[in-house]
Amino acid sequence: MANKASAETVFEALDKLKIEIPSWGFANTGTRFGKFIQPAAATCIEDKFSDAAEVHRLTGACPTMALHVQWDLPNGIPDVGKVQKLSQKYGIRCGSINPNVFEDQEYKYGSLGNPDPAIRRKALDHILKCVAIADALGSRDICPWFADGSNYPGTQSIRKRIGWFEAGLKEVHTALRPGQRLLVEYKPFEPAFYHTDIADWGMALLLARTAGPQALVLVDTGHHYQSQNIEQIVSWLLHQEMLGGFHFNDRRYADDDLTLGSIDPYQVFRIFHELLVKEWETGIAPDVAFMIDQSHNLKGKIEAMVQTVCAAQELYAKAALVDRHRLAQLQETCSLVDAEECFRGAFWQDVRPLVREWRRARHLPEDPLQALLESGYMERATRERRDRNVGAVASYA
Ligand code: LRH
Ligand code: MN
Question: Beta strands 93-98 and 149-150: pairing type?
Answer without folding.
Answer: unpaired
